[in-house]
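Colleagues,

For the teaching module next term, I've prepared a clean inverse folding example: a structure given as tokens, and then the sequence designed for it. I'd like students to try predicting residues themselves before seeing the answer, so please don't circulate the second half yet.
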């Protein structure tokens, strides 16, 4: 297993992102000026060659022990070029937009990340894989796969599956376990916030207000459990993520409940009691022997 690259933002990482965007923009500008004068085979060859050459660049830079920022730049170009190539070629060949098109760039991203230790690159591939897997349920039901962005339960359940799977990735190293778990954690929390705050985002055959109240209760229970779990694991960054999601949830619910369901004083009493219980529970977890 190659040495992993820290996911903590740094100047080198920022420079890699800027360089990746600039490189892709340069290629896109070149293609735009010559695209219309090229035959279809030449267009497909050009689109396919860009990510392949970038992957060769990653290998060469890694072999020569060049700065990892440059290797990560080539890795980003390879994965970004794969996304561009797959969807552009599909459009040029009049292929239907399918979730199957998500898998080639996802697999390329995972392969490059695992081969060269780019943890943050694997995180984007986990996001793509989550969308691809969640869309299968809609395709099986005969609905457009893009419905996955309108009905969030499949995304949430797939992210929960990633949370469970992350505990089985210990052979890859603790950094990879943290990456998968935090990515899945972010997806679960976003899904819960959307389902509990926006009407028309659920598959449940209930009235919109009933669905929102149901998911608001589930969000409170789910976020509380996630906070306790992160506390037990000792993951401070994960605990901060859950805490931020809880604050966003409470602010949104105060705006809703203050005007319709719960008086302000009752709302804050519930928040205070829940906070006291959570603090007491967290203290007990901290005192328990590991």
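(Answer key — instructors only)
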């Amino acid at each position: 297993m190659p040495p992993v690259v820290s996911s903590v933002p740094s100047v080198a990482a920022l420079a890699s992102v800027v360089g990746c965007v600039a490189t892709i923009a340069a290629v896109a500008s070149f293609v735009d000026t010559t695209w219309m004068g090229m035959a279809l085979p030449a267009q497909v060859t050009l689109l396919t060659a860009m990510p392949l050459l970038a992957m060769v660049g990653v290998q060469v830079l890694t072999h020569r022990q060049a700065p990892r920022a440059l290797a990560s730049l080539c890795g980003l170009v390879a994965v970004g070029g794969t996304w561009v190539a797959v969807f552009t070629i599909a459009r040029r060949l009049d292929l239907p937009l399918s979730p199957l098109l998500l898998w080639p760039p996802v697999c390329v991203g995972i392969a490059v990340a695992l081969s060269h230790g780019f943890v943050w690159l694997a995180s984007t591939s986990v996001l793509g894989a989550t969308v691809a897997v969640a869309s299968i349920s809609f395709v099986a039901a005969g609905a457009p796969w893009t419905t996955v962005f309108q009905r969030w339960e499949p995304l949430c359940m797939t992210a929960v599956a990633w949370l469970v799977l992350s505990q089985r990735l210990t052979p890859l190293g603790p950094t990879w376990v943290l990456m998968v778990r935090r990515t899945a954690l972010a997806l679960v929390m976003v899904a819960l916030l959307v389902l509990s705050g926006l009407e028309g985002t659920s598959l449940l055959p209930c009235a919109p207000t009933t669905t929102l109240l149901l998911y608001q209760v589930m969000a409170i229970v789910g976020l509380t459990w996630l906070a306790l779990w992160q506390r037990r694991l000792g993951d401070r960054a994960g605990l901060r993520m859950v805490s931020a999601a809880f604050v966003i949830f409470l602010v949104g619910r105060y705006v809703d409940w203050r005007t319709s369901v719960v008086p302000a004083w009752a709302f804050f009493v519930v928040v205070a009691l829940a906070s006291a219980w959570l603090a007491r529970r967290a203290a007990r977890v901290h005192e328990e022997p590991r």
